[in-house]
Structure formats: C-alpha cells, structure tokens
Amino acid sequence: MGLFDNLTTEGLEDSKDVAGGGGYQPLASDVYSAVIKLAYVGNSRKSDARSVTFHADINGNEYRETIWITNGKGVNYYVSKEDGKTRIRLPGFATFEELCLLATKEPPSAQTTEEKVVKLYNFEEKKEVPTPVPVLTSLIGKEVNLGILREIVDKTAPDDSGNYVPTGETRAQNVTSKVFHSETNKTVTEYRRDVQDPEFYTTWIAQNQGKERNRAK
User: Fold this and answer.
1) Model's pTM, two decimal places?
2) Which residues contact 60 (CB under 8 A, 6 or more apart)?
C-alpha cells in the first residue's frame, strides 16, 4: 500500500486558480523559480493530520515550507457548505498535488518514497535530532515556479491550558499560494482545461507581486 493511497482525488471538485492571497527573512510576494532539494512526510503529535515539508533552492538560498495535506481526521478534503455533498480539496493538499503534478507529471499517490534520516526538531529534547522519515525521492531535483506570498500573522504562545493563543505581537512568514510549471507557467487547472496560453500567472502577479497579506487578528 502506497503512502498516499488513502488520499482521494476521485469525486473531488477540480482545484481552481484563486489569486488570494523561521530564522530567515521572508521573501517578498512574487513567483520564484525553485529546485526541490528535500521533501518528507510528517505527522501531527495531537491528531491524524499529515504534512509534507519541502526544502527548495531559490536564488541560491534555502526556502522551507510545511504544507498540511490532511485535517485532524486524516482526510484531504472538506464538504461544501453550499450543497452539503461536494468534496473540495483542502488548500494544503491542493498545493501538494499541484507540486507533484507539475514537477513529476504524477499525482501524490504515484510518488516514490524512501525512509531516510533527516534532522528534525524534537519537542521533548528541544533541539533538532536525526529522525527517520518518509522522503519523497521522486520530487528531489525537480524544478517548479512557486507563487509565494509574504503574510503577517500573530505570534502565539501557550496559555495555562497549553493552547497556543495570540500574544499581541506579529511576525512575517511565507506561504505558497500557487504552483506554476517551470517552463510554461501554466497551472494544473490550465492543463486540465487545455488552455493554450497561461493566463492565471499574469493575474497572480498583478494581484500579489510585492504586496503583503495581513492575517493577524
């Protein structure tokens, strides 16, 4: 059984092109050429949520991002509130699927994985320690163009109950909002619809380039 065999794409509404909006200076919002150097699967300590963390080379600098591809129940979609039945990809899973399709021409379920040792932060030891994780070897060395947003979010800290709450301060971070093909700048949606010329890339640049998204509460 493959690592992503339980993540479904059948019956899910097609992803749409939406121009919405760690020890480093976050990048300005823009589209960047990125070469994937590492990608591995992680799991939440408190639920069945699953993540994929990737490291990429952007202009000679290392860019790291963790994408949560399932919810706390291990499901990669949610049901539309409008009709109560349409299954829609979670944003994180949509990004991961786009990354796989545009980098390797294969869906998440077809990616090759191999257990390797990676230095990860250990909450008990409070430092990075060598940890065996499933590494997505088929993504390593592949190039994509990432539509990365710079956003402002709340700094959080644990309260007396151990729940993380806003502190009143903010910080800047990056998040990938769209993946484009490295040569054509087409999106997965445009390939699915057989669009000849990339249109969404221009829309994304016009709406996001150099702009900062404020998500602080």
Assistant:
1) 0.85
2) none
